[in-house]
Amino acid sequence: MDQQMAKQRSRATGAVRSRLVFEQLNPWVTFSYYVVTIACSMVFLHPIFLLVELLIVVGVNYVARVRKQMVMVLEGSIFMVAFIMVLNPLINNRGAHVIWTFGGTLITVEAIFYGFMMALSLVIVLLTFLSYNKVLTSQKFMYLFSRISPKLTLLTMITLRFVPLFIRRLKNISQAQTVRGINVNRGSSRQRSIGVVKMMEVLLVRSFTDALQTADSMNARGYGSGQRSSYQRYRFKQRDLLCLGWFIPLSGLCFYAASQGIGRMVVYPALGSLGLSLTGWLVLLGVAVLFSFPLILEAWEWLWWNLLKS
Amino acid sequence: MAVVELIKVVNFNFEYALAKKRSLININLAINSGDFITIAGDSGSGKTTLLRQFKPELWPVGKREGQILFEGQSISELAKRQSAQSIGMVFQNPDDQLVMDNVIQELAFSLENIDVPADVIQQRIAELVSFLGLQEILYEDVHNLSGGQKQMVNLAAVLILRPKLLILDEPTAQLDPIATKEFISLLNRVHDELGIAIVMSEHILDDVLPLSNKLWILKQGELMADGPTTAVLKQLWTEPHLRNFIPDVPFLFLNQQIAAQLPVSDLPLTVLTGRELMQRGHVEVQAEAKSRISHDENGVVAKLSHLSFEYDKNGHYILDDLNLSVHQKDWLAIIGKNGTGKTTLLKAIMGFITLRRGSVKLLDKKLATWTKKTDQFYREVSYLSQTPSDYFSYDTVQEEYEERAKQLNMATPVEAAQNMMRDMTIDQIANRNPHDASGGEQQLIALGLLLMSNPKLLLLDEPTKGLDPIRRQKLGDILQKRQTEQNLTIIMVSHDMNFSAQFANRCALLFDGKLVAQAEPHQFFADNFFYTTTVNRLLRYQLPNVIERGEVIP
Q1: Cβ(A91)–Cβ(A72) under 8 Å?
Q2: Does chain B have fewer CB atoms within 10 Å around its N or its C terminus?
């Protein structure tokens, strides 16, 4: 039954029975991973860096089981990369190696290359958001930002809950209205618009009466009776601390290197060399480790269950 | 433990703001610790109004006279936080009470409101979850829970505040019979093991009466009877209007024929005690099983062949090669547990969902082509869903009916509307907003709207859900009249076995995507062991064919 399947699915993304080790970490750790990786993909504009990052992000999405969406995004990105590679030289005339001119517009190798790198970095960010959506559920997001405004967080959570409810309800109402002869899809445009207005009215009236009941239930359980406490579901465990212990310093080092110009290919005014210095390779290793954080955890888990456990 | 008086109500009257008459009249009652009280009465008798008086933060706007005391103090002086921790309340609709998006947060929400520190919250959740056995669904998204589970979570979210008194307003009205039994046995544990006093309003008393020590009957705002369960049941028997509220087992023992053979002082309330009494007293019951007319020689109105439906690719088949023929004037009741695809089947017949395989033929026309001519189709084939309020579009009941009549191009829309409202016995509420009507009235309003077009085939989804026994009888009578006089064919899905046994002329069981048993009701229920009516369970040892109380000769 679909309901049961949905149950299993939701269990898989739940905090306790998660598929990924990464999902079990405190939301703050998860969140810092995404902040760091997205920043990295925008800071290190170098083809080798970008390609390595892309490969690892694809790997992360693969283990995070968002393969279907990933294939869709990758298909779309081919066009996006092509589009940006064409657009950037058209609006950007910098660069030394001119390959074509028309009507005062210079098409340069540098601009095409820069467009390619920008597009690649954008693809990496898009792909990162796929696993982000899966791992950082709305609850975790709320947990992260509830400190800023508990009232607003509660309001947002209730609102988020109502959206799917609204959609389901609207479908049922439109079916019921069709049966009683008020049809939204047929008749003159006047009739149709009357139908739509009626339907929205029914939806609002119903949702309003239901919301009153929700308010009653909140009231009956003491909501608004004074100071509220806050129950945190995600505690900060030792493991989280250990993870942050190496992740944050390593990120710091990498960003320091970036500020020194390492891992940034010189494009303008003239295309620099593709090669990396020794420190360049070391920073690349560091970035690769940062990106592979979920994969490292997964690999360790696999090793433990398959080889180390006796 | 000495009995403590939790609530005392003295000469209480209540009148809603802008109302013309009082909704509660001269109420005097007391709730003691350890009580399990059931409140019954037809829709609009003031049950909800009365229950809400015990929660000052939920007081409806209006004029109050008299006194309500909680533990000797006026209840209006009870602070909100104190009230939340002393008196818990569970409402009818399982969905609307849930605030957060998963179970553990829902439980934490109650405690957060009263400023309990996080570590204590953790401890209280741990304790309650172990007591109620909620481990399996602790992190479940509330959308994914069944109705019964949702109501259990609602109960848990109130119990976690450790109340002394639990108030429940028709908590099982939206649940199927199995979920109802589970919920009530949970209430029994809460009452017996935790010693929490319970006050609960209900329409269907079969399951809850054996647990109650007191029964209150409300009639038009007055407390008509209050006292020990059996005494009140005997009093009810003398009121023809309210007699329908008596559950089957005590009903039979109050019946003249049996009462003459076996005068009992303590009425049996369960099948077990009832049957023991009968067997010990060698009671012979006279009954006549009224076999239903078969309409098989009439033309076929709905023919479903090889219906298959699934939600996802390679998903589980909700409907799996299902075949069905319904003849003119048939009243087919399809019975099955919640989630077996009963609603899906009706939606398939209406063409609301795209079938994977199979075809539907209604009134000798192919559904796929016919639904394109919407106006004509929806006049001849009609469908009443589980939420009648979805059908309303205007501000008063009268306007709904008149607009519907105009839409159907009737010659005299005003008269047509009046006639239909009279048929539906809702002419008293003609000037009210349909959304303000009670659940039972809403059902009748929506049904009337659909019957205006004189449909030849009517599909009903759980038509008796949330109806009191009086409205339920009325609904059955209206439909039966249409069936015999205007050749209406009805396909109904329901888990109300008593209603199906009383009115349907064919019954079928939906299981695993197929209709597994299809027979005349007597045959159907006599063959079933679990899925059968209370009357059949009680009497089957001597009268295997009797399925409803009307067949026992008075």
Answers
A1: no
A2: N
Q: Does the model's ipTM exceed the 0.90 cut?
A: no
Q: What element of type H or E holds B193?
A: helix B177-194
d(CA B508, CA B527): 12
Angle between helical axes of B103-113 and B118-132 (0-180°, round to 10): 130
Q: How confident is the model at residue A5, as a pLDDT?
A: 41
CB contact under 8 A, A214 and B96: yes
Chain-centroid distance of CA B427 in Å reads: 24
Burial of A170 (0-12, 13-18, 19+ CB in 10 A): middle
Distance of CA A63 to the CA centre of its chain: 15
Closest Cα of chain B to A133: distance in Å?
Answer: 17
Burial track B48-75 (b if 16+ CB lie within 10 A, e otherwise): bbbbbbbbbbbeeebeeeeebbbeeeeb
| Residues of chain A contacting B104 with CB distance shorter than 8 Å | 233
Q: Find the range with the poorest average confidence among A86-100, B387-401, B488-502.
A: A86-100
Residue at token pair 């396909």: B491
Express each pLDDT in B22-57 by its tens digit. Answer: 999 999 999 999 999 999 988 778 899 999 999 999
**Chain A CB contacts of B154 below 8 Å:** 217
Tokens of B183: 């919920």
Q: What is the pLDDT of residues B142-189, one digit of tens each?
A: 878 888 999 999 999 999 999 999 999 999 988 888 889 999 999 999
Across the interface, whether the CB atoms of A221 and B84 are under 8 A apart is answered: yes
Which helix (H) or strand (E) element contains residue B7?
strand B5-16
Residue A15: predicted pLDDT: 40
Please answer yes or no on whether A15 and B382 come within 8 Å at the CB atom: no
Rounded distance between C-alpha atoms, residue B286 and residue B258, angstroms: 9
User: How buried is A89 (Cβ within 10 angstroms: 0-12 exposed, 13-18 middle, 19+ buried)?
Assistant: buried
Q: Which of A1, A309, A211, A232 shows the shortest CA–CA distance to B511?
A: A1
Under DSSP, the state recorded for B72 is: T
Residues of A in contact with B139 (CB under 8 A): 11, 14-17
Question: Is residue A206 classed as helix, strand or coil in its secondary structure?
Answer: helix
CA dihedral B296, B298, B299, B305 (to 10 degrees): -10
- C-beta atoms of B100 and A180 within 8 A: no
Neighbours of A201 (CB within 10 A): 15
Strand order across the B317-327 sheet? B317-327, B300-310, B357-362, B365-366
Query: From the CB of residue B106, how many other CB atoms can be counted at a distance below 10 Å?
Result: 21
Closest chain B residue to A4 measured between Cα atoms? B144
Domain boundaries, chain A: 21-142+237-309, 149-212
Q: Are strands B36-40 and B197-201 parallel, antiparallel or unpaired?
A: parallel
The CB-side HSE value for B154 (13 A sphere, CA atoms) comes to: 31
Per CB-CB distance under 8 Å, the chain B contacts of A183 are: 374-375
Are B391 and A226 in contact (CB < 8 Å)? no
Whether A186 shows a pLDDT value over 90: the answer reads no
Q: To the nearest 5 percent, what fractions of chain A are helix, strand and coil? A: 70, 5, 25
pLDDT at B67: 93
Render pLDDT for B471-481 as a digit per residue (tens, 0 to 9): 889 999 999 99
Closest-CA distance, A230 to chain B, in angstroms, reads 6
Question: What's the gap in Å between the CA of B157 and the closest CA on chain A?
Answer: 8
